[in-house]
């Protein structure tokens, strides 16, 4: 059984809001959100780590490219546990690369590097960690997408209204790049 807490983000969270408090979360029982066709589950965030890192999973079906974006203050890790994920990255000098990652593969995206990804197989899963001097961005998922109480992928993709893309940098370290072109496709 997982204990539930009330936080400033949710009436019922499985993650305690106070830093420095040990806790356990059963598989899939973190704070869940749907965004695009994916299920994001947050297991630890800024509240628990004094804004030093977050830990989350992203599960999704084979699908479309997640839009190009960057984090000006946050480094991001992609560790694949199921399926296959194609990671697209552009460094700060404009050099682009892409790599198909399969279970056990690891990808690192430093801050200020443009990146995107695409689930290449159904039932793919990424373990993500983000850290940096600017704090963490895990609450982006449920505020940009939609909080989810049930397990599983969304029945319909959750695509935010166009005006929400412009407001994201005001609250989270996520800047979308709608005109970015990947030359590596």
TrEMBL record:
Keyword Isomerase carried by entry: no
Alphabetized GO MF terms: quercetin 2,3-dioxygenase activity
Record's keyword terms, sorted: Dioxygenase, Oxidoreductase
Domain Cupin type-2: 60-119
E.C. code: 1.13.11.24
Classification via InterPro entries: Cupin_2, QDO-like, RmlC-like_jellyroll, RmlC_Cupin_sf
Top EC class for this record: oxidoreductase
CDD domains linked to this entry: cupin_QDO_N_C
PANTHER family per UniProt: PUTATIVE (AFU_ORTHOLOGUE AFUA_8G07350)-RELATED
Protein name as catalogued: Quercetin 2,3-dioxygenase
Protein species of origin: Streptomyces hundungensis
